[in-house]
Amino acid sequence: MTGARQCHLILAVDGRPMMHGWWAAEKTAREKFTSWVGERGAVPGARITLADDTTGQELMTWPQED
């Protein structure tokens, strides 16, 4: 599927990437984002980001910046 959209989910701790995931379906990626926040959000220094790999646009982030 060349040119297909991919959503990239990243868990970073203190700025270092620890986990990655890629999904073609944005709905699935958003569900995984919510799951990762619930499962890993309490890790000190954790930052979870969902981005569109095609455009580089950040779709969701946790924790949210002020």
Number of beta-strand segments: 4
Overall morphology: globular
The fraction of residues in strands falls at 35-45%
Fraction in helix: 10-25%
Q: Give the strand order, joined by hyphens, for the main sheet.
A: 2-1-3-4
Q: Using only CA atoms, what is the Rg?
A: 12 Å
Outline the low-pLDDT stretches.
none
* Biggest sheet architecture: 4 strands, antiparallel
What's the structural blueprint in terms of helices and strands?
Elements: E1 7-13, E2 16-23, H1 26-40, E3 46-52, E4 58-62
Antiparallel strand pairs: 1-2, 1-3, 3-4
Describe the structure.
It is a single chain. The protein has 66 residues and is of the alpha+beta class. The protein has one domain (7-62). It is 23% helix and 41% strand. The chain has one helix at residues 26-40; strands spanning 7-13, 16-23, 46-52, 58-62. It has a 4-stranded antiparallel beta sheet with strand order 2-1-3-4, with helices on one face. A hairpin with a 2-residue loop joins β1 and β2 (16-23). The longest helix is centred in the middle third of the chain and has 15 residues, at 26-40. The protein is globular and about 35 Å long. The model has no long low-confidence stretch (mean pLDDT 92).
